[in-house]
Amino acid sequence: MAKHKLLAGLVLGGAAVAAYHALDLEQREALKDACRERVNALKDRAVDYAFYAADAADDFKESLNDHLAAKTDAPAWQTLNDDDTADDADDDIVLKSAEVADLNDTAADADEASDDSDDAADDTSDSDAE
């Protein structure tokens, strides 16, 4: 069955190419212009639908916010911003670039120190083995 579809596609494609080459120059240009017009119309329609979808999403968000604002028992995610823990500076993980450089230096020093202690441990285990 798949072979028949492949064969039919090849035959129809070949027939379309042969028909296109059989057209004179004016007819080819007219066919190209008609195809361009249809493609441009399709692009315009796609853009219109995209704007329509964006408007619908905005309307939905506004409706949802209005509905949630009218409720007296707000969900937990809406009252989370009113929490005092969000204002604590201790909870923030924001570092300045100088602090990050200091952290990298201390981490590199710690890695070197651990490498040195590993080497010293390896040296003592080698001397014990002899």
Automatic annotation (TrEMBL):
Residues 108-130 have a biased composition (Acidic residues). This is YtxH domain-containing protein. It comes from Levilactobacillus tangyuanensis. Residues 103-130 are annotated as: Disordered.
